[in-house]
Amino acid sequence: MALEIACAGCGKLLRVSEEHAGKNLRCPACNQVTTAPGPELAETTVLPAANWYMRTPEGQTYGPVTREELDRWILEGRLAADCLLAKSAQGPWSGAASVFPALGGAPQYSSPQASSRTSATPFQGTPFQAASPFADRAGSPRPAQDYRHLQPHRGGLILVLGILGLVVNCPIFSFMAWAMGAADLREIQAGRMDPTGEGLTRAGHILGMILSILWIVTMMGVLLFFLIAMLANM
Q1: Residue 14, Cβ neighbours under 10 Å: how many?
Q2: pTM (predicted TM-score)
Q3: N or C, which terminus of the chain has less Cβ within 10 Å?
């Protein structure tokens, strides 16, 4: 006879053979160690029914889980008033606040679109076997990237050089913006320089490149004009 026990860490239903009664079991989902009931308790142990399903506003379905697991999700912020709950993966779905009035402020799910949202393949198990269902919800805070270990960017300087090349009509600034921008963009793409300055660097690089090319074309045109004039006077 197989034994069914709920993992003490994540609530996942574990099925083991009777010979493992009284032994420590490790959950494959969260690695939590749970002790299986002994032979004398195996037949009398009543497990909570894992018949609840949760659907997030994004349409992802999680379950089946127990009512106790839903209580824990509320405390952890995984179950909010804008979620839907049902006792079957096919519905009918109702607002979480109708099951847990303490949530309050539940939105009205009267529209056919809201009540018919489905997940192509409902997730069987608990959210602890995958990423948190609310990890990517809009408005969630994201940890800022730390670029202090990278070389600081020179985007502002490169853009200023490009603008000076245009304003004062000096090719030196334009060539500097072109060369420095190309070098810094390579460093950014290689992951050795702070990428937050990529926009300024690219703008200065493009401006310096265009002005430098215009200077080169102009100088070549002037030299060609003098060369033709000299040949015409010979």
Answers
A1: 17
A2: 0.39
A3: C
